[in-house]
Amino acid sequence: MAPIPIISPINVGHIDDVIELSKTKPDTIPQRFVRDITERPTIATLTPNKAHMPIIDFSNLSKHNTHELFLHELLNLATACKNWGFFQVVNHGVDLNLMESIEKMSNEFFMLPLEEKQKYPMLPGTIQGYGQAFVFSEDQKLDWCNMLALAIEPQHARNPNLWPKKPEKFSETLEEYSREVRKLCENLVKYIAIGLGLKEEAFDSMFGEAVQAIRINYYPACSRPELVMGLSPHSDGSALTVLQQAKGSPVGLQILKDGIWIPVHTLPNALVINIGDTIEVLTNGKYKSVEHRAVANENKDRLSLVTFYAPSYEVELGPMPEFVDANHPCKFRRYNHGEYSKHYITHRLQGKKALDFAKIQTRNAF
Hints:
By secondary structure, this protein is of the alpha+beta class.
């Protein structure tokens, strides 16, 4: 999502295409994918009421059926943002046929011959095209995932050469899908602002021409899923992230809550939303971004479509004055969002470490 890619060459060594690798169903996983014991995935065993994230019925917010319903759902949204940082949205207004179409075309893209997909290469240090992102050295452990990442808005951030020409009408469908998801994001940030006691346009006016990008992730089945990581633990640099999990995909997304990795069971036709680092900064930590990761499955492939919605690269950001007082000292410095975005994509995914860029470092008095 950064405006400027790395210019200096990066030696990432040989990177196997995971989809091609999975076709051979190897008994032995290549060492670059095998995680250290401390990094290998585990799944929490929790009671159902603790394992299920909040569900927001967007129609109660957008249609204003009754004032009571609106206020009730607004409180649910505010509670979800504060206590979870993740929630599922139902009745979100994104056309279900469109969701099905972009999902089908995305699957078709990943099933194309490797030579066709390699026409859209993701170069080291960039985050557009097909391949693996956030790889910066030849000995770095790799995720069990292939992805197609594209800038959507502003249009001058796009690289048209990296938009696939196959399957037919993929680009047109992605454009239409992205417009609908953008509308959802624009509305969500308004309701999040209201829930915080701000004017509904508070975030919109601050964001300028909001940045939007999509990353379509394909996680092939893995013969030894306990050894690999689908996507390394991280928080998102965005304001909001919207995830659509393909129908029939196994559970793969996990979020870190209260020190435990919890698997996310998505509802049919729902979208999963999470708070990004940007909202954490703007609210001075009242709402926090949440570390999450993806795990592989032994028997089934998984597809997810992830949209990132963030402020313009040109804007300056920092905690809003409404969230800073004597009891809540300022935790983050002011910074240019474009510089933060550049910092984010030029470092490997490593929990919430990217947010250190914005933190005010306190000095030990001793």
